[in-house]
Amino acid sequence: MFKSLPCCLVLLAIAIGEPGDVQLRASEAQSVEQQHFSPQTLLPALETWVLSQFDLPAIHEHPSIEFASPAKIVSLRFAGVLSDPGEQGSPNDRALSAQHDTIAIYYDATRTIYLPEGWTGDTPAELSVLVHEGVHHFQNVLKLKYECPQQREKLAYMAQDRWLAQFGHSLETAFHMDAFSLLVKTQCFW
pTM for the full model? Predict the structure, then answer.
């Protein structure tokens, strides 16, 4: 199992089209392990990987990245929704359940990815969160339209699952998201 960012970066380089016979010398591996990478530094490589996996045009604008508390991330997810008078159920109940469900968010209006405080990007699962939110940035910049917000999640979860598969994981093993849960999160039900 890969637990460190250096391993993820090496596999990312291979995944985005490096020749299959690439070998990392011990001295190169040590220099990679001694570097510290911020999410902003990782974005170009992750965007290149997304482009290699899906038929999307290149974009030349990176999102902003901020760290936020789980409460702020949830409030951004439901901005303008929880105060709707026609909403069924208690807003507090929905917000509480969403705190467990919402790890990070891409906020279209400011073109910002909000990652949870404490995010390090040291594991394939953490990097997959950045991949997921990065796909939403592509969708926003390219002005892609969807019938409902859930339908927009389909490509993001597909990219996240493909990323995880490179490391022997899946959405189910990394985030306990089974096929039914994924279906509910990616379909319009009205």
Answer: 0.76
d(C-alpha 22, C-alpha 135), whole Å: 28
Residues 40 and 150: their CA atoms lie apart, in Å, by 26
Give residue for tokens 């008078």: 85
pLDDT by residue (tens digit) across 148-179?
999 999 999 999 999 999 999 999 999 999 99
Write the secondary structure of the chain as one string of H (helix), E (strand) and C (coil).
CCCCHHHHHHHHHHHCCCCCCCCCCHHHHHHHHCCCCCHHHHHHHHHHHHHHHCCCCCCCCCCEEEEECHHHHHHHHCCCCCCCCCCCCCHHHHHHHHHHHCCCEEEHHHCEEEEECCCCCCCHHHHHHHHHHHHHHHHHHCCCCCCCHHHHHHHHHHHHHHHHHCCCCCHHHHHCCCHHHHHHHHCCCC
